[in-house]
Amino acid sequence: MKRAIISADDFGLSVEVNEAIEIAHRDGLLSTASLMVAGPAAEDAIERARRLPTLGVGLHLVVIEGASVLPHKRLPLVTGPDGWFSSSQLGLGVDYFFRPEGRKELAAEITAQFDAFARTGLRLDHANAHKHMHLHPTVGGMMIEIGRRYGLRAVRVPLEPPEPLYAAGTYTDTLGDAALRRWTRLLRHQARAAGMAANDWCFGLAWSGHMTPDRVAALAAHLPDGVSEIYFHPATHKNALLQKLMPTYEHEAEFEALCSSEFRTGLEHSHTARCGWQDVLPA
C-alpha cells in the first residue's frame, strides 16, 4: 500500500511562505506544515493555521541557521549576538555533542521551542528539524525526549531511496547520500524506542528547493510501498530574506507543484493515498 504525506517546511519564515502554505492546503495537495516558532512571520503563520483546522501543524525545530526563542545571553555558546544560530553544521555539531554547555543550551532551547508551540494552542502534529539537524544524535534524542512531554507522537526520518529518483529523472547517487541513508537508522531507532510514528521514506532531499511540477509528477509515478513524506519549500514570491537564505531555491515552482493537476494525477495513477501524520500513529 502506498501512502503520501505532502508537507511544507519553514512555515513562519515569511508571509510569502505562509501564503503559499495556506493556498496549497486549501486548493492543492498540502496536508501538513512545520512551524518555525521564532520565525519572522510566525504570528502570521499561527493566525492562518487557526483558520485551517484540517492542516496538520508540527514543530520545525531550529537549532541551526535561524532565530532562537531564548535570548543570546541564555545561549552564548550556540548563538551569535543577533540571536541566530550559525550555519556551521560541523561547529554546532561539535558543540552539541562534545561540550556540556552546548548540550545544556541545546536542551533549554528545544524546550523553549516546544513550549512556544504549546502556547499557540495548536495540536502538535509532528516534529522535524531545520536542515535535518535531528539526524544529529544529541539533537534527535533531545527532540524526541523533550517532545514527548508536549505530546509529540510523530517524527520525520529523512530516508530517501535512490531508485524512485533514478526512475523519475536525472539523479546521481553519491557516497555521501549512501552514508546519510545508513545514518538515518539511528534516528528511526530513537523514534521507535519512544513509541513514535515515523515515515518509511522521505522525498525532497536530493531535489531540495527544486521540487518542480514536472519532477514531482514523475516522482509520484514511482513511489515505493509504505508511507512516503514528500516535503516542499513553497512561497508565493521570493522576498529578500528567502533570496539571502536560499538563493538557488525555486520557491515559486515548488508552490506551483503543490497545486498542479499533474502531481495530483500522478498520485492517483500510482494508487497512492494522501494522508497525514495522525493517520500513521501507532495504535
What does the model show?
Helix 4 (100-119) packs parallel to helix 5, helix 8 (213-220) crosses helix 10 and helix 8 (213-220) runs parallel beside helix 11 (261-269). By secondary structure, the chain is an alpha/beta fold. It contains eleven helices and nine strands. The strands form two sheets. Strands 1, 2, 3, 4, 7, 8 and 9 form a seven-stranded parallel sheet that branches. A two-stranded parallel ribbon has the order 5-6. The protein has helices at residues 15-27, 42-50, 89-98, 100-119, 137-149, 162-168, 175-193, 213-220, 240-245, 251-258, 261-269; strands at residues 2-11, 32-35, 56-61, 127-129, 154-155, 197-198, 201-203, 226-232, 272-275. It is globular.
Secondary structure blueprint with pairings:
Elements: E1 2-11, H1 15-27, E2 32-35, H2 42-50, E3 56-61, H3 89-98, H4 100-119, E4 127-129, H5 137-149, E5 154-155, H6 162-168, H7 175-193, E6 197-198, E7 201-203, H8 213-220, E8 226-232, H9 240-245, H10 251-258, H11 261-269, E9 272-275
Parallel strand pairs: 1-2, 1-8, 1-9, 2-3, 3-4, 5-6, 7-8
Helix pairs in contact: 3-4, 4-5, 5-7, 6-8, 8-10, 8-11
Pfam families: YdjC
InterPro entries: Glyco_hydro/deAcase_b/a-brl, Hopanoid_biosynth-assoc_HpnK, YdjC-like
Organism: Acetobacter orleanensis
Q: Do you know the CATH topology?
A: TIM Barrel
The first-to-last residue Cα distance is: 18 Å
Total count of domains: 1
Secondary-structure element string: EHEHEHHEHEHHEEHEHHHE
Average per-residue pLDDT, rounded, comes to: 96
Number of helices: 11
CATH structural class: Alpha Beta
CATH architecture: Alpha-Beta Barrel
Structural class: alpha/beta
Give me the count of strands.
Answer: 9
